[in-house]
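Data card: per-record layout.
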Amino acid sequence: MLLGKPGIVLPADSTAYDRYAIPRDKTTIDACRKAALAARPGRIEKFEVRNTSEGFRYRFEIEGPNKLRWAVICDAATQQILKIQSLEW
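The structure for this 89-residue chain is written out next.
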């Protein structure tokens, strides 16, 4: 058995904490990577998986051919680009 919140006991096969697990389907990462590079062509310098209240987000830092750097946020569930932000000052 696993302990959840104090005083609540969850069975070992409970899915109560599955929302915190990293997405198992790697095809969503590939689809988001392709979408991010289509939005801002270049080379991916950094990749992060973020767990937000709205679900998982993938964050790509991309350096373009002109040396400008961009952060591109993609929704893991829909593979849609949510935000593109310049990392230049």
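Known properties of this structure: The longest strand covers residues 43-52. Helices lie at 27-39.

See the next section for split statistics.
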